[in-house]
Specification:
Elements lengths: L5 H13 L6 E3 L1 E2 L2 H9 L5 E3 L1 H8 L9 H13 L5 E4 L8 H10 L4 E5 L12 H17 L5 E6 L9 H18 L3 E4 L5 H10 L5 E3 L7 H6 L4 E3 L3 H18 L4 H4 L4
Amino acid sequence: MVRAPQPLVDRARILLAAHHDAAPLVLPNAWALPSARAVAAAGFRAVATSSRAIADALGEPDNDSSDPDLLFDLVGRMSRAVDVPLTADLQAGVRLEPDELVDRILGAGVAGCNLEDTDHHGPGTLIEVETQAAFLSAVRGAAEARGIHLVINARVDTFVRRVGDEAEQLAEAIRRGRRYLQAGADCVYPIAAADPAAIRDLVAAIPGPVNIVARAGGLTIPQLAELGVQRISMGAGIHQLVMRDLASRLERLAAGDPLAEIWQAG
């Protein structure tokens, strides 16, 4: 067993501390080296990846079927390209057992990870809560054995998978979030939670940092901060914005628009 190098241990500590600052940790999600460098250059405290955006970049579906070799090669290149901590969205663990998963994470120089509880490979919509808790606990144990407090962001998929009605989605998200923190997670990520009242209830009932996605037309970063959200990410939103802009410019180029106009920003 190889212990985590000290620079990575330090990055993980910085990332964990950022979840407990007075201001929320804002994470524009990246998907390649240029976007990671742009996030760091803009002054953000960490770089997060988006599994959906990376899956698009790799030509793969975002359903825990990504090739671990390709995924960890890419996030490793991204982590080495920036001087801030990088936290990687690893779907449900890309089918790796906890020890191998942690070895891959540390080998890539990654300080934190998202792990979701959608059941991509079994009969259910969501992984059974105790099964997921045991998995998170094993990941925590493997990281601690290697001398690092890997920052685990436990994604709760009750809202995005529409498990029950709205009240049931909220109640199950709270139940899972509390259990995942007990199992060793550092932050709970109820993806697709958007209603202000639901977010307020999540923050009040989950005894740890809560991660919410900021979406176009949704709550602003100040509004999310006012609700007590401590980690705010963008998901695949920035990647989709960039790709829409690219498609628009290419359409104009194909239509014969003047190059001087196509090169103009915005």
